[in-house]
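Now read these lines:
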Amino acid sequence: MVTRPRFIDLFAGCGGLSLGLEKAGFKPVYINEINEDALSTYLQNREEEYPYLRNPKFHSRDIKECVNKRFFSKLKRDLKQEHGSSDIDLICGGPPCQGFSGIGLRRSYSVERKDLPSNHLFEDMARFIDEMQPKIFLFENVRGLLNAKWDKKGVKGEIFKKVFSTFKNLKGYSVKYKLIYSKDYGIPQNRPRLFIIGIKQNLIRYESECDDALESGFLPDPIYMDPPPDIEEILSDLIDPNFENGGETKIYPNNAVGKWQKEFRTKNGKLAKKGDSITEHKYSKHSQKVIQKFEAIIANQGKVPDEFKTKKFAQRKIEPRWNNQQPNITVTSLPDDLIHYEQARTPTVREWARLQTFPDWYQFAGKRTTGGIRRAGNPQINIFEREVPKYTQIGNAVPVKLAEKIGIHLLKFL
């Protein structure tokens, strides 16, 4: 029997990175996620295939409670008992990025990055890697990390320098990094993401002196011959002509068209047809004024008419086709950023998930959305806890298809 390579996902969120790795052939054996709703999302979608993850032995919430000798000894013992070995092929993780993201900062309370506890979680991840000694590790984060500084008097890039050196100093690994764009891998988003990859030196045939993960072959080459699908290729089958403001569509209003829609709607070889049930397709309830604004933007080829312009974040219409251009959107934690290309509304949770290439069978736990202090916290008064509703879980995830492509590539080293 062929043993699937085993991986641990730290800061797993709702499971986008994990799901892509699973599709590539990896098997999750332990996960860590501090938010209860995101953890519930992760676990409920793996009840059938990986039921052992429900056991508290194989999942945790606060990583800081884990990084000690006693924990690692117990984890290795539990893994050997459950899977026959405590060897780990891959440890991956994307520590919370609000402190490094420009959007995250300006939508939150002003506080120096050095004072945000979440900005130091990379050190815990490095400790985890050092103790478990996986064959490969994968760190993922936002583009803003490259230029971030600890405080106003700091130097641009000083945080990344610290992060990269922390992983670079792990003994026995060759460590590279690269900023890549999801659109270059066939994903219907621009979505730049920074990856740091470490591979055991004995697994590398030719050692490259440069730090570029793409040039060194640590990441797959972009697939320019397979361009990203148009948005209507992703979402058109979900358009309900009878949708109601604040209502919900509970059955597929159309049959699937094209390979993308068919893949989204297939589970265990069965394709969902028109009239079959669909979840997470509930519409936000907009005021009449907002609906009028959305209608005007759609009618004005996506431009905001002068009478509707505000000083707040500008909303954009999702264009149905790229028209020989590159994808120019990035799914965030806020659905209000984008307007549906045909209907005067923001995207539903199901549509949001499809933009991140989650299949329709994937279910999300918790609230649909939230706002204010509940989502942003208030570091000025030591409130670091954040609610992570469905839209935010999805926005924080790694696109499933991108993770799958990276996973397939990493298998070559194993």
